[in-house]
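User: Can you predict the 3D structure for this chain?
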Amino acid sequence: MITTDLTPGSPCWLDLGAPDVRAAVAFYGAVLGWEYESMGEAEDFEGGMFKKDGKTVAGLGKLTEEGARSAWMIYFTVSDADATTRTVEGAGGTVRVAPMDLEDWGRMAQFSDPLGGQFAVWQPGKNSGFELADETGSLSWTELYTSDAAGAKEFYGGVFGWQYGDMELPGGGGTYTLITPAGQPEERMQGGLMELPEENLALTGGRPYWHPVFNVDDCDAAVARVTANGGGVQMGPEDAEGVGRLAVCLDPAGADFVVLKPATPG
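Assistant: Here is the predicted structure, written as structure tokens:
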């Protein structure tokens, strides 16, 4: 499970680059019950924080990169962003945003893996990351779709020291790799990666991509809110044995995410 007791290699933050920040605020407020807190003046809709029950769950900013698609960026905790940057480059990844300080909040950097999958790291300063996880309306899992699972396991394992465990999906659906931070027990599993043909990675033109999974109380009701507010559904809702009921969704700008009603334990 993802927690706010953040350890190296665990997800600690995520933010959305949106072409229309005001529209994103309205959509995620309706779908996940999030509130928006601007980082600037009251009428500043260029960037701010999403909150749930008064706790920060994610960030939001204006998409400014030319030609970029609207997407969620997932950040992983590191103790040294500069050392991680060197490791990424040595493993065949590329630097999208060089390590930089965000005042005294922390130090961040953004990268692409060898096949172009984008991710980021956060070296905590006075801010460690999100304040709510694995609860309704917050991040509960992260997932990478890639055309080369073996290569992804080698790359991310070298960068973060992740532990892996493979499981076969029912009905011949392929192999799903579970991810746990280095040195952590299985109950701290934080995500998974899945190999898919490039033609199934149409959102990014065949490149790998990460997406977030958000907990909801009712998957079908959440999907109804997605479609009622201009979003779309790529898959589901459907039941996944031992996982819960889930759906892969798109917001109105095309950013992908998953809503999950977790299975009841036992």
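The chain has a mean pLDDT of 93. The two ends are 16 Å apart (CA to CA).
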